[in-house]
Each structure stands twice: as C-alpha cells, then as structure tokens.
C-alpha cells in the first residue's frame, strides 16, 4: 500500500497525459500511448508496482503538454496490463481509483512527475437531507432506465446501478458506463460535489433521451412512408393485373400518357429529349413528393400549349369592312387604317407587319375595335391587362424551381385559346411599370419585336414558343409613359373623342339596345326620345367616350324596370322633362364664353383625359417689384410657358406704349381658376402671353375668341396636339373664333365639317398675328399711354 492509500494528502506520482479520453474512478479503460514520456511513465509505474496519474489534455493537438495544457482534476489509476505494439507503442489497461487534483509538475525530463493532492476532492459533504437524495437518485435511475431501453448493453447495468446506495458513486458509475464525450466526463470529474455532478448527469441523460425520441419519430415516419409507398406500388400492380384480366386495354399509367402526348407535340427533337428526362424522373420518384408535383405541373403546362395549332383566317376584306362598320359608328380614320392593315396581312400572311396601338381617351372604343378585328378575321380573342404590372415574371414567367412558379401571361393566354395565332390584346400598355428589380417594358420588347418573338422563351416553360403568328393589338390612353424603344415597334392609331352628333348616333344605334337587353326590357316597354338623348349627352355627361353615357342610360332603364314591375306604368316614355326625375339635377355646366370684352382675361383651350375643355386665364396688375405670381395648380411645363410669355411681352412692350419701368414697379398675377385641378402641358403659351399683354396695356380681349398654341421667346407660335377635342370644347362654350398655330393647319383639314362648322379658324405663325385677332381695340397707342399714366399715379397715391 503506497503513501496515498495510507491517508497522505499529497503524493508524487508518474503522470500520463491523455488525448480525448477521461478516466473516471471505478471505470476500466484501454488506450494506446505513443509519446516517449508517456511510455516511460507507464513502464516505471508498472515496474515499481505503483499507481499512475491519468489527466486529460485540454487541447489534443499539443504534443508536449505543460501545466497549463492539462485539466485541474484527474484520476489516480492502477495499471492492470500492458502490451507492446509495433513501432514501440504501448497498449495499457488501467482502472480508476480516486479523483485527485493536480498541484504542480515536478519534472518532465524523461517522463512527467506530478504532485497531486487529495484535499477535499474525495470528501462527500451532505448538501441535502436523506429524502432529497433519495428522490434525486430515483430521478437519475428513471432517466437511465429510459436510455437503457434503447441500448441492450446499458440495460445489463440497470440492476447493478439500482443496488448502489451511495449517491456520488451512482453518478460516477453512470458517467463511466455511458459512452459520452470525454468533455462531459471531465465535467463530471471536475464537479466540486455530488450536486454539480448530478446537474451534469441528469442534463446529459435528458438530452440523450430527447435525441433518441426524435430519432425514433423520424424512423417511424420513414417506415410509415415506405409502407405507404410499398402499399401503393402493390395496389398499382394489382390494378394492372385486374385491367389485363378484364381486357381493359385503354388504361395507361400517368407517365405513359405523358409519353403519348409528347409524341404528338410539334417541337424540335432536342426539346423533346428534355421533356423525356422529366417524364423519366417522374416515373422513378415517389408520386406524392413535392418534386413530383412540380414536374407534373410543368408537364401539364407544356402539353397545354398549342404548338403548331392554327386557325384559318377569314380573307374576305368586304366582310371585315362590314363587321367594323356594323360594330362602330364614326372612327372613320381608325376603320380605314385597320382595313388597310388587314388587306396587307391577307395578301402577305407571312409578312412581318407592325403592331397596332390604339391610343385615345377612356371610353372611346379601343378594346371593342380590337374585338371587331378578331371577329372580322375569324380569330380567337384573348385580352391581357397590363395595367399595374411591374414584374417582368408576369411576361416571361417564373423559374420553375421556385415554389409556386407559373408561366407568364402570354403563355397562359395561348393555353386558354388553344391556338398559336389568336388576336392578343395588350390592354393598358401605358399603365405597365418597372422597378429596380425588373423591367416590364424590356420584356415586352422581345414579345413585340418580329425579329425576336418567333423564338420567345418563357422562363417556366423553357421551350421556344413561336409568337410571330399572333396578331398583337395594344391599347393606351397616352404615349407619354411608353418608352421610346417600345413605341418604335408599334404603329400608333389615334382614337379621338366623339362629337355630340357621333355620341347621339352611338347611343341610338348601339347603347339603347344593349342596355335594354341588359336590364331585361324591350322597345315596347321603354322609349327614350331623341331630344332626351341629346340632353343626356350635353348636360349629364362630360367625357371623350361614351362610357358614362351608357351608365346614364342604364340608370334610366333600371328605374323603368322597377316602375314596370311595381305596376305603376305599362309603357314608359322619357323626354327632356322626365330626365330630372330619373337622373336628378344636371351634372355638367359648361363654362360659356363671356358676354363682353375684358382686359386681362383670355379663354384658352386644353386637352384632358376626358376630352377637351376651355379655361379662363386671368391676369391682374398690382403694385410691386416686377414679380410674376402664378396660381392655379400649374405644372412645371406651364410655369415655364408663363416665364417665356412674360419675356416675350417685355420685348414688345414699347410697341404698345407700356412704360419702360412698368415691369419693375408692378407685379403680374396670373391665375387659372379651379386651382385644385392640376394643369400642365405645352399649349397655353399664347393664351398667357395675350392675357399678360392685355393687362399691362389695358387692351380688352375679344370675348368670343379662344386660342391654343405654344410661344417662343421671339414670338413664334408652335404647334400643339389634341385639336379635335379642343375645338369641340370651343363649340360647346359658344366660341366663334379659334386661333390655332399655322403648323397645325394640316391637322385641322383632316377634321370633319361637322366639327369645324360654325367656327372661324384663324391660323397664326407669330404672336403679332395672335394679337391682331385677339385684341378688341387696335391702334389705340395714345389712349393706352394716357390711361396707363393715370393708373400709375392712382397706385402711387394709394387709392
């Protein structure tokens, strides 16, 4: 018996540093040592029949460990057996005796000699009473028993552990028997008392049991899935045998059905090979897996696309003309251009014609014109709304690897109509937009470019799709928001506002019949007079198209339907006097021309999204410092026009006897009424310049004259757009004279006599010509000068 076993508290002993191994008291381990110092320590201890100190390294990679490289606590062990291996290595069997504390390393020349202490490391203080310790022991045994049910080797130790009465011995024994990582065993060894060791042991036991429980759940789920798949396979095989016995030869599997569809598909051979791979993958994988569902969706989409399926076009140009004439009143230029387009397409079916883009205000019949073209050619019709579309994937589709991926709207449209040469309406193309992630307009370039769309590639389908035979027609309210490259690929056809006469005929010939049918009525039950229709157009609607007109007619018919069902009336006749009863007070009040000529007041003409309109431009002269005040919710373009107009009239002020310092002593306030309504556009230049000069020179402007046109600094009048709508607005306001830019004369000549009837159109190339026809008083220079002097003196006196 050595000094330690005789009760000594300090001992010098040979030491072996262990890698990735921790020996606990009472446990027996086998390990190999290769380091020279460790081999020497084992041989010395074995030859002298002494114990050896086994301590674990903190870092297994250190070859020659020092004091700081070793854990503080280790185990004093007895070497039971040694065996020499190849290359001089040694295999040792050692049994742990006691837990000791490393004091210091005395020598490490030939082998490590350490000084170890017993201190209190083998003492067992009672931290809990007997009942608490008994409860803790039972908890440990129960957790170990749960773990032992999954490990037969541990189940053999259960009876042995149940017989142990010492709590600390029980904890050490469990930690030694379970194949835990050496760091966990070291944590048990480092425990200052059985309370700390209990926390470590119970924590790891609980963790091991949770891992086993989760693993068992996975295994059970896998076993259940395998059983279901095996069951499905057996049932399918039995079903095949049953079908064969019954002689039901039409029954085919899902993959065989896809293969038959693939044989009929008119696509290149290399694309067929890609689809064959997907069919083979579907055949070999589990039918209820997520990937199988994705492949199935992809194959269904591909086989629904009408590759090589076409309809024959109706090549009777007279039939096309009669269809357009029967469906639409007016729109002569539009119908003429469409007939020309169809004629060329009929003569040259393979030709790469332009993409038609119908541009005009809402409600003017752009969509219905596209429907009529499809009807005239006998094509199938599909409408794709682009309003608000900002994602490129809406056009090109999503990558099929994404969750919830789907093809683009174009491919979906072809799937719906079932042919490869429909008429596809790209509605509201000006309302599409782009953001920093994708560019919708760039995707549309590929679609509308005849040099690219014969091999359009959708990201989801990944097979080239021929869109060259699709007749694309686009609609837009304005071209200002369409990028130039996309606009260059389309031919613009303007669908202008309707005149009151055109609206009357449209209502009488189309809308009345349509709303009668929509509301379940007939002509014998309701009759609306022609004068009532005119009044509805003039006093209850204000629009470029006829959409609100149709709503008003529908509102009348709904009230008539109620009155008929309630038995109040047999037949309802509606004239001008009855409109107030059915539609209420008049909704539209036109701003009529002034009765008298006024100074600083000019009537301009403007284009809006609902047609033309007139606007009063008012200018007042106020004492000040030469500032220009602008009010009326004007945009940047109109503000620039006002500044240009002011500079222009300053350059010609002397011709109208305006004092040289007038623009330095006075402010000009320019106002356009209805300030809450935004106004912008390059067409009010001459109107603002005329109003400013009139106010400055005190020359009245003719009340029956309206004007439109932009002005330059040198007084040139520039052309503008929207003349049809503007002239219609001037007629509604009772204007007799309309001043327009000379360069717009060709546009005016294209207008029908119905629009220009009753108006005197004055063409002006310069601002002088505008003033000549706009001012009510000419050659009044002396009178003007005298009046100006009086006005300035009055202002200076504060009156």
Automatic annotation (TrEMBL):
GO MF, any single term: ATP-dependent peptidase activity
Lon proteolytic domain: which residues?
596-777
What Gene3D superfamilies has UniProt attached to this entry? 1.10.8.60, 1.20.5.5270, 1.20.58.1480, 3.30.230.10, LON domain-like, P-loop containing nucleotide triphosphate hydrolases
**Main localization category:** cytoplasm
Protein name, entry field: Lon protease
- EC top class named in words: hydrolase
Q: Which UniProt keywords apply?
A: ATP-binding, Cytoplasm, Hydrolase, Nucleotide-binding, Protease, Serine protease, Stress response
Q: How does it assemble?
A: Homohexamer. Organized in a ring with a central cavity.
**Entry binding sites for ATP:** 360-367
Query: What InterPro entries does the record tag this protein with?
Result: AAA+_ATPase, ATPase_AAA_core, Lon_bac, Lon_bac/euk-typ, Lon_lid, Lon_proteolytic, Lon_Prtase, Lon_prtase_N
Q: Where is the Lon N-terminal domain?
A: 13-209
Q: Which GO terms describe its cellular component?
A: cytoplasm
Species annotation: Johnsonella ignava ATCC 51276
**One Pfam match:** Lon_C
Residues the record marks as active site: 683, 726
User: Where does the record say this protein resides?
Assistant: Cytoplasm
The family note in this entry says: Belongs to the peptidase S16 family.
- What Enzyme Commission number(s) does the record list for this chain? 3.4.21.53
Q: What is this protein's function per UniProt?
A: ATP-dependent serine protease that mediates the selective degradation of mutant and abnormal proteins as well as certain short-lived regulatory proteins. Required for cellular homeostasis and for survival from DNA damage and developmental changes induced by stress. Degrades polypeptides processively to yield small peptide fragments that are 5 to 10 amino acids long. Binds to DNA in a double-stranded, site-specific manner.
Catalytic activity, as annotated? Hydrolysis of proteins in presence of ATP
Induction note: By heat shock.
Q: Which domain of life is it from?
A: Bacteria
- What Gene Ontology biological process does one annotation of this record name? cellular response to heat
